[in-house]
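Two folds, back to back.
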Amino acid sequence: MAALAGIVLALLPSIFLVGKVRPRAVPDKQMAEIARLSNALSRGSGALSYKQIRLIEKAEPSMVMRVIQNDFFEWSRERQGAVVNLLARLGYVDLALDQISSQNYQKRAQAAEMLGILQSPSGVMPLIDLLSDPEEEVRWAASAALCRIQEPSVIEPLVKALEEPTEVTPARVAEVLISMGSQAVKPLLDAYPHMEEKARGICLEILGQIGDNQAVESLINGIRDESPWVRSKAVQALGEMRVIEAGPQLVEVLQDPVPEVRARAAQALGYLKWWGALSALNEARKDSDWLVRVSANQALATLTGKKNQNSPRRET
């Protein structure tokens, strides 16, 4: 069932939740100051007033960062832009770059988030390094920041990082590459033939999530890979992309020797809603593996619109 688990993209809903890293605890007096600054900056929705600018200039940078963490994504786009421009002029990019090497993991996470908010290209390489941080909160903040910055120069080093999963968390790398969209497709396709087994599967899963038709040929070739892991990911991606022309090949995969791959093929054919698969899916309902039978049954229900298909029982 490991191939069916989809470990890479299990955390995809968090890609665009930058701004939610949990701030560290601070004394009550500082909390009061942070609350005062937060209330002041929340007034209005456009350009900052002179008083608001002076408050930021005089405030302790750590407090300003806390307010940005808490409030930035609640502000209007105009207010966000005004704050970012001011912080850039006040040197907060350099402050964040200094803080990114802190021994305190929450400070590293805060620095990563600030670099993402400020969308500074100078933060790209340090953020890539943070993708291998021992703390998940830091890795998450770094990937979210890179997604926000959208700097094309990150693609090549991240594609290379897919081949070093012990150094960088594949899920975090996948999040950033998926956020880059079609511009990441060609580098992924170029690197794919030279990748090891696990990296090839992750690569195909990323390509499926991006959904660019440039990847279709490689995905179809992937269903003939010697690795069941890679075949499963190729089949899954073809289904998610609704690649109708892959229907005949997916029908052939219903004969794959590995049950998990056959189950993925049945699911994919359900996504396609391709009537040419009707006979093969009916046959798959008799498969020796329970998961394949259930997947085929669900695919037929999707294809025919009949939700009362007789569900095969699990054998015990």
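---
second:
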Amino acid sequence: MEYIKENIKDFNTDHIFDCGQCFRWEKNDDGSYTGTAKGKIARISLRDDLLTIDNCDENDFQEVWREYLDLDTDYSRIKEYLTQNDDDIKEAVSYGYGIRILKQDFWETVVSFIISQNNNIPRIKGCIEGICSRFGRYIGEYRGKEYYDIPEPEKMAGLSAEDLAPVKLGYRAPYLIKTAQQMIDMGGPEEVRKMLLTAENPIEELQRFCGIGPKVASCISLFGLGRMDAFPIDVWMRRVMNRVYGIEEKNIKDMNTYAAEHFGEYGGIAQQYLFYYIRDLK
């Protein structure tokens, strides 16, 4: 099965799947990406303005991929908003012109970004793959590879540090186990997600969970809750905010204030343009 969607704008698979927002997509030799979302496996590519999703029918596209790829959001309008009064961000927006914020599963983002702490992307991907293949629900086979989902909180909470040792999570292992139990105690990830969507400060609320600090909470808020105003700050963002806007690298408070005042409701999208730009340029 192959689904083709025409007239796709502001979309680039490298920009989307290699900008640090997701860790379960792998690039193929032909430039396409294969990964999973909501229990579905797909191979996604773009040629000119034709989006091709292999292993997908009309129902899968409407029920999963249309929302996941954020295809109904007008990114050209967002770019115009971000750049109309900010010449400094124009180069970053132009460089990462095809970035879209994926609408990821909330629990998956919690697990992924707890693992991401003080870690590099290849190791993050390896750890997540190890957890899924050992403890996750079997999704299916695609082109000779078996795919598994992120383990549910009930499964994760029942594991021990020894169980997770082969995955090489280090100090992050007990964080995942404890957070999984906290999620269960609060009614499960979906109930927690609903609570956070109505919370006045979801980033602050997320930090009640084990192993979640301000940066991880901001990432979960942006990628798992769809809060486009969240502005995650790590070493790369401190660097770019210093180089582009002249803010001291240690002054995270001023960076957050600047983002709120100048990027507003699209702070998270601005962050992705800036992050992709500075990380790629080194």
